Amino acid sequence: MRAFLLAVLTLSALCAELPAQQVQVRLREEGALTPINGAIVRLLSDSGTVAQGLSNAAGRIVLRAPRNGSYRLKADRIGYMGVLSAPFELTAGEPFQSDLIMPTTRLELPTIEVETRTRCNTSGPEGREALAIWEEIQKALTANLITTATAAVPLHVREFQRWLQRNGTLIREYNVSSTIMRGQVYAALPPATLAEVGFVVMDAQDSMTYAVPDAALLTSDAFVSTHCFGVAPGDEGLVGLTFELVPGRRLPEVSGTMWVDRSSGELRMLEYEYLNLPGLLGRADLGGRMEFQHLPTGEWIVSYWHVRTPNITSSEVRALGGVRRELPRHIGYVELGGRVTMAGDADGTVHLAVVRGQIVDSTLGGVGLAGAVVRVEGSTEAVLTGADGRFELAVPLFGERMVVATHPKLGLLNDPARPPSVLSLGETTEIDFAVPALERLVASACGRGATNRSGIIGLIVGPDGGVVDGLEVRASWRTPGGGSKEARARVGRQGLYALCDLPADELVTLRVFNRQQPLVEQTAEVGFRSFAWVDLWLPGREP
Fold first, then answer.
1. Which of 14, 48, 97, 343 has the smallest number of Cβ neighbours within 10 A?
2. Count of C-beta atoms within a 10 Å radius of residue 521
């Protein structure tokens, strides 16, 4: 299951070629006249916002008007009073220039003694406290949307998966991608779609998709009209804007809290939970978290997110009359998420190199090899290959570097190490790996004459995903006369077993033994003068 996080922003003034003139704005603080970085500047007409953006380190920004006419400028920055200019006329000619002096008066968010709920209606947050917090949150979310739309700052995005027990204890965690992106770092459903179908959707294959709230959703009319807002106190100087479902809404939804730093007014994080889920899912305490960061360049990004999904297995139980049934059982959680940091400078210069490629499994006809670890020597960064065997890894290294792929199937032969690859900052290097051909592995385990025989070769995989040695594999089959035969093989130090003389076109039962204790059983069939690769997974882990 993979969780998809969606956000869409369409600003016609930024995306189309506009013939009308520029509006050049410079923002400075009153008194010292210091340039203001990262303020939200909007160009307003009678119909609303026609262009918007963030001021740069020099306090400057250029906006484009779609046509001649009367306009105003509105500038906001988080934690301070905003400013609205007087109306001005735009006509064809030289760019219009405007100096805006912004007040240095800080906005003090209210101190919340006890949790307060506002009256729920479709017009948005109400109450003095909720409105004050909501206005600062909107600034941060708007800045995040502008950052997504301009796509200037290179970002290092590390997506991860981690497995937890039901009590929250971490079992394991892996990075599944490490790449450079600009603008939108995840894909998401539009707010109108979420309002119509809800946040948790089951597809035709019974796979669940968990949508996550983002800036586009939180600022949309579709979200505000379906949630009630209130305020709540927090720890460490935080104050929260809570949101919960309007009464009577039955779709799978979210409720939670957006936490704001009370002294600076900056949005810190969003915590949420899923509601109105059926059966076992409704009792599984599912939800997630997002964290926001104000970059030195003035942009706002989502610096961290995760969504908690259930890890569900099935248990066989005996019902009345001896009938066996399989019932779902919640055994833990799988969290899908990402961490985001700057990958370079505001001008687009990238300080990381990317390694991208695929590992193919020659023992299974050249399909992708999932679960291999890829790393670059000299860096602590590493990623797992996906189901298709593909990987992408960004590292702060350049020059000749060894790129290493690790998996039980890749270390079965003593092949020479591949030469180092040349990495360049801001560039992508393509590197592919392959599991040795099945014929080579059979020849190593059974001898070169094995090509005229039939057999099975494979690995014994333990509950933690690592190979297990010291066991015994027994293969049994029925003879034409009604009897049975058996072949045995010891499992080597690399977890490899090989049964080199099996009957062709016969159904063979494979069993793994620890001394005389059977651990797992599986059936397989071997063709004439051919070998099959069969991994045997010990109990406790699904392949």
1. 48
2. 11
pLDDT of residue 321: 61
Those residues whose C-beta lies under 8 Å from the C-beta of residue 19, and which sit 6 or more positions away, are: none
Distance CA 503, CA 453 (A): 9
Segment 22-41 mean pLDDT: 93
Written as one string, the DSSP assignment of 224-239 is HTTEEEEEEE-STTEE
Q: Exposure pattern of 392-425 as b/e (b: 16+ CB <10 Å)?
A: bbbbebeeebebebebbbbebeeeeeeeebebeb
Beta carbons of 100 and 126 less than 8 angstroms apart = no
The fold of 438-537 is Immunoglobulin-like (2.60.40)
Q: What is the pLDDT of residues 146-177, one digit of tens each?
A: 888 887 789 999 999 999 999 999 999 999 99
Secondary structure of residue 116 in the 3-state scheme:
strand
Of 528, 540, 367, the C-alpha closest to 455 is 528
Q: 23: closest CA among 69, 78, 80?
A: 69
At 350, phi and psi to the nearest 5?
-105, 135
- What's the whole-number mean pLDDT along residues 268-288? 92
Q: What superfamily does domain 353-434 belong to in CATH? A: Carboxypeptidase-like, regulatory domain (2.60.40.1120)
Return the CATH fold of 12-102.
Answer: Immunoglobulin-like (2.60.40)
pLDDT at residue 494 above 70? yes
Q: How far apart are CA 58 and CA 32, in angstroms?
A: 14
DSSP state of 510: E
Token pair recorded at residue 424: 């360049």
What does the domain layout of the chain look like in residue ranges?
Answer: 12-102, 116-342, 353-434, 438-537
Per-residue pLDDT tens digits for 304-352:
999 999 988 776 565 666 666 677 888 899 999 999 999 988 788 999 9
The SS3 call for residue 143 is: helix
The amino acid that residue 131 corresponds to is: L
Give the separation between CA 300 and CA 78, rounded to whole angstroms. 11
CA distance 536 to 521: 8
Residue-wise DSSP of 416-460: PPPPPEEE-TT-EEE--EEPPPHHHHHHHHH-GGGGGS-EEEEEE
